[in-house]
Amino acid sequence: MYTPASFREERLDVLHGLVHAHPLGALVRMDADGLCADHLPFEIAAPTPEAPFGILRAHVARANPLWRAAASEDECMVIFQGPHAYITPAWYAEKQRSGKEVPTFNYAVVHAHGPLRAIDDAAWLLGLLERLTTRHEAAQATPWQVADAPADYIGKLLKAIVGIEIPLTRITGKWKLGQNRTLEDQSRMAHGLAADTQPGAAQALAVMIAARLTPAS
Questions:
Q1: pTM of the entire structure?
Q2: How many domains, in total, are found in the chain?
Q3: Residue 107 is part of which domain span?
Q4: In the predicted model, is pLDDT for residue 84 greater than 60?
């Protein structure tokens, strides 16, 4: 990933934060037919001596050939896409003076690398499913729990999936938030994005830009 120094993000807690906030990752690997990708919801675990940048965990259907690729020594990559939005040149001061500006796209993204492991263990899988469910059900008025389903039904489903784990050997982040622009332009971008009438990524990107412009207390 081409990452100019001004856009490089190296703080591990910030990188993990994006993964946690946007857990659907694209796992990219090479198979017999060339490059392929699987889109999976991941959890990110804290670093260990073996995995100095953390550990990604997920599960796939047993019918998915992905988990069988774990026998390979090849590294895989998981891409996590954070907030992104179109940036109009109307927000730049130079546009008003000379018109010499063009649009761009701002975004935040994480690439995580490491070897792929398969974990075919019912207890491990159950723990993963319980953690994922607890997290993603938290906003519900009455959160669903794995234990709400019959035990024999869950047991049957556990046999139909396989866990995967990726101890991270490398993680890179690109936060393209207009850091190469003047502070005035960055402030205009944050204001313009915050005013977007469609709630979602634009507002999230505005918060990220504004946070960089606000001195720490």
A1: 0.90
A2: 1
A3: 5-213
A4: yes
